[in-house]
Design goal:
The complex is a heterodimer of chains A (617) and B (473).
Chain A: H1 8-33, H2 36-45, E1 46-51, E2 58-59, E3 65-77, H3 87-94, H4 98-111, E4 117-123, H5 125-134, E5 141-151, H6 157-160, E6 163-165, H7 168-173, E7 182-184, H8 187-191, H9 193-196, E8 201-207, E9 213-216, E10 232-234, H10 238-247, E11 253-259, E12 264-271, H11 284-293, H12 302-305, H13 315-325, E13 339-342, E14 345-348, H14 358-364, H15 367-378, H16 386-399, H17 421-428, H18 452-463, E15 467-469, E16 474-477, E17 490-492, H19 497-512, E18 532-538, E19 546-553, E20 560-566, H20 576-589, H21 595-602, H22 608-616
Parallel strand pairs in A: 2-10
Antiparallel strand pairs in A: 1-8, 2-3, 3-4, 3-5, 6-7, 8-9, 10-16, 11-12, 11-20, 13-14, 15-17, 18-19, 19-20
Chain B: H1 7-10, H2 13-33, H3 48-68, H4 71-76, H5 78-95, E1 97-99, E2 102-108, E3 111-113, H6 115-131, H7 141-159, H8 164-169, H9 174-179, H10 184-202, H11 205-223, H12 227-250, H13 257-279, H14 282-308, H15 311-321, H16 332-342, H17 355-358, H18 370-402, H19 407-431, H20 449-467
Helix pairs in contact in B: 2-3, 2-18, 3-20, 5-6, 5-7, 6-7, 6-19, 6-20, 10-14, 11-12, 11-14, 12-13, 13-14, 16-18, 18-19, 19-20
The chains are: A alpha+beta (617), B mainly alpha (473).
Chain lengths: 617, 473
């Protein structure tokens, strides 16, 4: 039998032979040469389940629990494993609309059909309980446990800060974090993140394609245990903090209270504030946006970030410098005729007796007196020129910590502003200015900017008669880990302590002077406690001046130093002084005797009156 | 009559041995792929491995029955089988049960039956019958078309189910036509068009057109004696193109640039047709027609790809060509399959120790992706052995087909060879990323009664015919 095409069998045979060879080579490459498939296989089958440690708890100085954790549950979904289910029931349990359900599911699908992603984060424990019963009806969904921050009081939000999910930048900065982890974003939560977060653990399981656990990997030998975060004790006095916030309701401003001997921050109020519970969990981003839009800027930590001219409170500093430079003596007297006049410059003053000595000058807060004091410091013949005098004066200020950050453990500190020599040289020319040009700084106006936090520290320095300790919020942590050494180190102010006594006398009289003697801060008076204080008024070009008051008490054994700012509160004595008095009384006696006085402050509304007036215009 | 007693000796036991070995290996691997620790018995009838044992025993019975029946029965009744199968394929379109969007199965109680599997051997028989008829040759277009219709009829009905994978299997029968003398130009054209199809999807069209036109020009320059004419032709081409472009410019013709190219080709082609006709240069004309055809084809690929192929089919092709990378979407199957096989290493992870297949990362791991279990648990050694076993079977079939004394039996042998080769290459190729994902089973290995029986029938009819080859002169 003859067949002319018989040779074609060789073509068919050779093609098949080549293909079989190609397949063998390909298999050899896949299985022997390329090893990447082996690691992909372990990625497939090994599930690293992160064990999230409970975040450290936060206590106040008296051991009251402020911040703790509550279990929360993230609802996860693997889209490829979802199947037909009672969507209506599902939505009812979770309080979702059908549109939202579909939107979330398609978002998860967009991310990946085959790996899990968060469908709904932080569902409440009650929802979780209901859902858990019905979970078997919803294929492809499962629940992952997490913890959420919980607050016992609605106070101290700015101090405590908040926690949120890590951002891409956090992950890049520190490889400890993975997508979906939580991290402290501000305040104590941020500053002490490394202590509070503890250490994540990991459990390695073998899973099938449905993510169902088939057993632990290598009998758990590679697993690590999660380490619970370290608990923190703050220097904050929760009662005082709450009282401060209560007093500041319907006012804009801040209160900073420090224990002078230790630099421990007792209270740090920024008003208006917000309830820290608002920035927890699923509601956080919405609430944050609302707070951010609020024209009263509740997120803005005024205690650390608002920078005001110090006003008359600054006279205490100029007095101290003058005394130390010996251009001023306690018995030095200056005359005041409703102000200070010199070569066309006029600084007004109020009506009081004249002439006055230094202590009376502080008591009466006489502007003319301190214009003289200030000019004598700068024009001190010892230095030869006003520029040298200015530098000497400025050095005293920086020793109080003005013009720079303390580097405290409170986040968001701003440095304030103390002009440098070059500032005036640039503005007026090197020989174009004199002590008179900048005389407004004698009474704490002009270019000076100081934060309430710095002001409270200044008060503490006076109370300590010449030193301060960097104010801080941490008292101790459960690990017993060493605190920053600066938090126990005395910062000495190069001014003789005897000069402080003189100034303190003036501050005593400003509060406790007899009626008619010209005391400017009588509203800060507290029964049976000697409060030493000084009023101030920060000029505000945009409206009513800001009311400032600094004080410490008791005079001979200072337990608390405080700075109070009430924006648009007028003279220091009007609102700031009574608030400081109440705070001091609250802290030292735990009891308010003059309830009518308290009522007066509580009922003062400096926010809404303003706006209604505007409406009436 | 004494010749008949030789059947025991004439039977090709080598093929049967490979067949038994493959079926047994299939069973072992199905056991591993579907292993259920609560039902560890391999004969447990509630599990797939238990059922496969039943299918295997039934297949053996079928093989014996096929051997008992006289070989001439298959020849004489080949058209009856063919028509019967076509009717079944029609019936399944009407009465079949829709599963995953296609009507491929009859379901009667617990009994499931997939007629498309059985259409393969019937088509092979019919094709053999047709091509072995007296004075048959494939030089006339009429016969080629008839042969192609025999192949296309069941393919079309299966395509209607729709079951793209099983439809494509019929393309393999082109190997039979090739062996029986069809002009290699057809095969060549199928290959060229296939290559062009892939290239069109990867490269931009300007490049393809440029290459095609340059290639044609070079071809003419090399083969044509009168180079001047070729240059004149090229000149005509360029002038026509420029003219059309100018017209497009002046008339603000809102028309695709590619369309201009095609018009130029056809326009200048008219001149060629006249010249070629005059000088009887039919070969040159054919080349030119092929050029125009290729360019048109390049454009139609986009249309076919976007409008005829289903979404998932487009994606599978894109993933295979590396145009799209989507390891969690449509590339998932291939990716997981490669991971399973690749993680097997040289020696494999060992029997029942494959994590990828056991924990269901690989889809369809006992049917279409059964080769993953082989690769993961038995490593390169195991998969190479299986590939070589298949190669041995296929080469053996080639030898058997070539030793036949009748056209019918040789053609049928080639049909068996082609179908098994296609299944083997496409199935294994898909699991190692050399072929797009086309859901067809690996013969004798994959789980499933219909496919195992169909392949058994396909193979054993040929072995029976082969065993009686000495009866024919």
């Amino acid at each position: 039998m003859k067949n002319q095409y018989v040779s074609r069998k060789y073509v068919v045979g050779s093609v098949l032979f080549l293909l079989v060879l190609l397949y063998l080579v390909r298999l050899f490459y896949l299985q022997v040469i390329d090893t990447s498939y082996r690691s992909s296989a372990s990625n497939n089958v090994l599930r690293f389940v992160t064990q999230y440690p409970a975040r450290g708890l936060i206590y106040d100085r008296n051991g009251e629990l402020l911040v703790y954790n509550e279990a929360a549950y993230d609802l996860m979904v693997i889209p490829s494993q979802t199947g037909p289910m009672d969507t209506a029931d599902f939505c009812a349990v979770l309080d979702l609309s059908l549109e939202e359900f579909n939107a979330r599911l398609s978002r998860a699908k967009e991310y990946s059909r085959y790996t899990s992603s968060i469908f709904l984060s932080q569902i409440s424990s009650t929802n979780y309980a209901v859902l858990q019963e019905k979970m078997y009806k919803f294929p492809g969904f499962y629940v992952q446990a997490r913890t959420l921050r919980k607050y016992n009081r609605a106070n101290a939000a700015h101090v405590l800060g908040y926690v949120s999910e890590v951002e891409e930048s956090d992950i890049q900065r520190d490889p400890y974090y993975n997508m979906g982890d939580y991290i402290g974003k501000s305040g104590v939560e941020k500053k002490y993140e490394s202590l509070l977060r503890g250490k994540k653990g990991v459990q390695i399981f073998m899973v099938d394609v449905h993510n169902q656990i088939k057993g632990s990997y290598l009998g758990g030998r590679r697993d690590t245990v999660a380490v619970v975060g370290s608990d923190l004790t703050l220097t904050l006095d929760a009662d005082l903090q709450a009282y401060g916030e209560q007093l500041m309701v319907n006012k804009i401003g801040s209160i900073v209270a420090i224990e002078p001997a230790t630099g421990e921050v007792l209270a740090l109020v920024s008003a208006p504030g917000y309830n820290p519970s608002l920035l927890v969990g699923r509601a956080r981003s919405n609430q944050y946006a609302i707070l951010e839009k609020d024209t009263l800027k509740p997120l803005f930590n005024r205690a650390l970030m608002a920078q005001y001219p110090p006003g008359s409170t600054f006279k205490t500093i100029n007095a101290l410098i003058g005394l130390n430079e010996q251009t001023l003596f306690p018995e030095t007297e200056y005359y005041c005729d409703l102000g200070y006049y010199a070569r066309g410059v006029y600084v007004g003053c109020h009506l009081h007796n004249a002439p006055l000595n230094l202590i009376q000058g502080i008591q009466n807060s006489c502007n003319a007196y301190f214009c003289n004091v200030f000019r004598r410091i700068l024009d001190n013949p010892k230095y030869g020129s006003v520029r040298e005098g200015f530098v000497a004066w400025r050095n005293y200020l920086t020793s109080f910590g003005f013009g720079s950050r303390f580097g405290s453990d409170l986040t968001g500190e701003l440095p304030g502003f103390i002009p440098e020599l070059s500032y005036y040289d640039r503005y007026y020319g090197e020989n174009g200015w004199s002590s008179l040009t900048i005389v407004s700084m004698a009474i704490g106006q002009g270019e000076l900017l100081i934060t309430p936090f710095q002001m409270a520290n200044m008060t503490a320095s006076i109370a300590n008669r010449g030193f301060y300790i960097v104010p801080h919020i941490i008292k101790s942590n459960a690990d017993g880990q060493d605190m920053d050494p600066r938090f126990s180190e005395k910062q000495i102010i190069p001014i003789d302590s005897s000069h402080f006594e003189t100034v303190i006398e003036g501050m005593d009289l400003a509060v406790n002077g007899l009626p008619g003697s010209g005391s400017t801060a009588r509203n800060a008076k507290v029964p049976e406690i000697i409060v030493c204080g000084k009023t101030g008024t920060a000029e505000n070009p945009h409206g009513e001046d800001h009311s400032i008051f600094i004080a410490f008490a008791p005079k001979h054994d200072p337990q608390i130093a405080i700075a109070v700012y009430v924006e648009n509160g007028g003279f220091g004595n009007t609102y700031a002084a009574p608030i400081a008095g109440l705070m001091i009384e609250k802290y030292l006696t735990k009891h308010i005797t003059r309830t009518w006085f308290e009522e007066y402050i509580l009922n003062t509304d400096l926010i809404h009156i303003d706006t209604t007036n505007q409406h009436m215009d | 009559m004494t010749r008949r007693t030789n059947i025991w000796i004439n039977t090709d036991w080598i093929t049967i041995a490979i067949f038994v070995l493959l079926v047994f290996l299939g069973w072992i691997n199905i056991y591993s792929a579907e292993y259920n620790e609560h039902e560890p018995g391999i004969v447990n009838l509630s599990e797939r491995y238990g059922k496969q044992m039943i299918w295997i025993l039934a297949a053996f019975t079928l093989a014996i029955i096929i051997f008992i029946i006289d070989a001439r029965f298959y020849m004489y009744f080949s058209y009856f089988f063919y028509i019967g199968v076509l009717l079944l394929l029609l019936a399944v379109l009407i009465f079949g049960k829709e599963i995953h969007g296609s009507r491929s199965w009859f379901i009667l109680g617990d009994f499931r039956f997939q007629p498309s599997e059985f259409a393969k051997f019937a088509t092979g028989l019919a094709l053999a019958q047709f091509l072995s008829s007296p004075n048959m040759n494939l030089k006339t277009i009429k016969n080629v078309i008839k042969a192609l219709l025999i192949i296309a009829a069941p393919a079309f009905l299966i395509f209607m189910q729709p079951d793209t994978g099983s439809t494509l299997v019929y393309a393999a029968l082109v190997i039979v036509l090739y062996r029986e003398g069809i002009s290699p130009i057809y095969v060549f054209m199928v290959i060229i068009l296939g290559v062009l199809f892939v290239i069109t999807l990867i490269m931009n069209k300007t490049a393809i057109i440029t290459i095609l036109i340059s290639a044609t020009f070079i071809y003419y320059m090399v083969t044509h004696q009168r180079k001047k004419d070729v240059l004149i032709g090229a000149g005509i081409f360029i002038v026509t193109g420029s003219l059309l472009s100018l017209i497009r410019l002046f008339l603000q013709w809102d028309i695709n640039f590619y369309f201009i190219t095609i018009l130029t080709l056809i326009g200048s082609g008219l001149v060629y047709i006249l010249l070629a006709y005059r000088y009887k240069l039919m070969k040159q004309l054919l080349v030119y027609a092929f050029l125009v055809g290729s360019v048109l084809f390049a454009f139609s690929v986009d249309y076919v790809f976007n409008n005829v192929l289903e979404d998932h089919q487009q994606k599978r092709i894109n993933v295979l060509l590396g145009i799209e990378s989507d390891p969690l979407g449509s590339g998932y199957n291939v990716n997981q399959s490669k991971i399973a096989i690749g993680s097997g290493g040289f020696w494999g992870k060992g029997f029942l120790r494959g994590t990828q297949t056991k924990f269901n990362f690989v889809p369809e791991q006992s049917t279409d992706f059964i080769f993953c279990t082989v690769g993961e648990e038995w490593g390169f050694i195991g998969s190479a052995v299986m590939i070589l076993l298949f190669a041995a079977l296929l080469f053996r079939l080639l030898i058997l087909a070539e030793r036949q004394r009748t056209h019918f039996s040789r053609i049928y042998g080639y049909a068996v060879f082609s179908i098994l080769t296609f299944h083997f290459l496409v199935n294994v190729g898909m699991t190692i990323g050399l072929m797009p994902v086309i859901g067809i089973p690996l013969p004798f290995i994959s789980y499933g009664g219909s496919s195992l029986w169909a392949f058994t029938i396909l193979l054993f009819i040929f072995l029976k015919i082969d065993a009686t080859r000495t009866e024919f002169l």
